[in-house]
Amino acid sequence: MTERDERPGRTVRKAVIPAAGQGTRFLPATKAMPKEMLPVVDTPAIQYIVEEAVRAGLTDVLMITGRNKRSLEDHFDRNVELEVGLEAKGDSAKLARVQESTDLAQVHYVRQGDPKGLGHAVAVAEQHVGDEPFVVLLGDDIVDARDPLLDAMIAVREEHGGSVVAFMEVPEDQIHLYGCAVAEPTGTTDVVKVSGLVEKPRREEAPSNLAIIGRYLLDPAVFDVLRETPPGKGGEIQLTDALQVLASGDGPGHGVHGVVFRGRRYDTGDKLDYIKAVVRLASERSDIGSDLREWLGEFVASGAGAQDRA
Q: Helix, strand or coil for residue 63?
């Protein structure tokens, strides 16, 4: 393998956001619109992900896209006509919101081509990332701005080197939905040493209740491993397979630690969880939260939903 710079304190500057999926769980809404552009209240889901990266100091963002994803580029680009119109109307509040996405970060785009799994999407980022550690953020998980998960992951990387994966504890009957960690305590609260990963294990075979969530801080050594990683489940190149190699090896850039996240996370990966995420975030808004909470209380108390199902 190629020698990599594995200095634990090396600054993490770059973020990679895979966004080439078709979003079939949200059809027909995603027939002509990328799932990443689905609004969470009034902000596209993808903007929450970019904002999270920026809060952690990652201002160089690469999106891995595919066909029909042009609106992602448009969202983070300027819309001069719209800005001029809002300025002419004196609508400074909306103008600021429109310009916010444009000014967030330096956003780059590369197409994945033939999607072959998350591992393949990460491999596509190699030319842009180069010989640096980088963060991968999956768009189905929105992490609350009040819970700085990426900062914690970067701190673990600075102490231990290698790669860092975010986990959460889930009930035993849900572990089959996630990648799962074989891990042991490090002596630091909510930091574990990972010795193995199992992709969606059966409940009785799961080594723990630590489930992978969509945040990875990867050493560039992962690119060497991905080049040698054969397709796994579903004919796709699995990132967990590459992380398994990094966790069990001792070469440059090897070693995997985990951060157990206990903060607020909003899952936008399926219809029900997406609706819950919208309601939870909207209910905390200063502009509509009070009215929404009052209405929700009245709606539940009235039993309207139960009557509709009867």
A: strand
CA 12 → CA 137, 158, 228, 285, 302, distances in Å?
Answer: 14, 10, 25, 32, 51
> What does the CA dihedral 108, 152, 144, 40 come to, rounded to 10 degrees?
20
Q: Are strands 191-199 and 179-185 parallel, antiparallel or unpaired?
A: antiparallel
Cα–Cα distance between 183 and 155 in angstroms, integer?
Answer: 19
Give the residue ranges of the chain where pLDDT is below 70.
Answer: 1-10, 304-310
Calculate the dihedral angle through the C-alpha atoms of 41, 45, 46, 48, rounding to the nearest 10 degrees: 70
CA of 52: how far to CAs of 148, 229, 274, 277, in Å?
8, 30, 18, 16
pTM given for the model: 0.88
What structural domains and CATH numbers belong to the chain?
14-269 (3.90.550.10), 270-310 (no CATH)
What are the distances in angstroms from CA 181 to CA 100, 156, 192, 295?
38, 17, 10, 41
DSSP symbols for 121-172: HHHHTHHHH-SS-EEEE-TTEEE-TTS-HHHHHHHHHHHH-SEEEEEEE--G
Q: In this structure, what token pair is assigned to residue 259?
A: 């951060």
Could you tell me the sign of the dihedral formed by the alpha carbons of 194, 199, 202, 203, in that order? Answer: positive
Phi, psi of 167 (to 5 degrees): -125, 160
183 has which bridge partners?
194
Radius of gyration over every alpha carbon of the chain, rounded to an integer in angstroms: 21
Query: pLDDT digits over 197-236, tens only?
Result: 888 878 887 888 899 999 999 999 999 999 998 887 778 8
